[in-house]
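Friendly challenge for the regulars: who can give me the structure tokens for this chain first? No prize, just bragging rights.
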Amino acid sequence: MKSIGSFWLIYLLLPINQNPDYYITFSKIDNRVYAFVNDELVFDSKFIDGNPELNLSLDLSPFLKKGDNLLKVQLENGSNLNAFIDDTHWTIRYEIFENGESYDYAYESSKNGQAGLIVYEKEHNIYLK
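First reply, four minutes later:
Bragging rights claimed.
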């Protein structure tokens, strides 16, 4: 019984590392997404043809540092064959999670005719203690 009490005393005295787990899940990418953490490219989806329903997840935790972090998501419209084809529609939908809970969400869609360039960009701030 004494060893069990010692275990709890040690457990209570040890600092608890409660670094949250962050990840981002993409459910729509039309046609290519880039994710940057603190200006470092951490994800490139490559070109995705059409506008399928997706379930792509990226663990952001390995790229985050203590303090302020900047997550930037960019969307490129086009095609693997020719980035400058006449593609009038683009869509992006994703959600950022902290410890399994929704932290932020984005959904944008347009038929503005832009192709072959970054047609969407959004920044998200993540702070780690």
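Residues 18-128 form a domain with the Lipoxygenase-1 fold (CATH 2.60.60). Residues 56 and 101 are 17 Å apart (CA to CA). Your move, everyone else.
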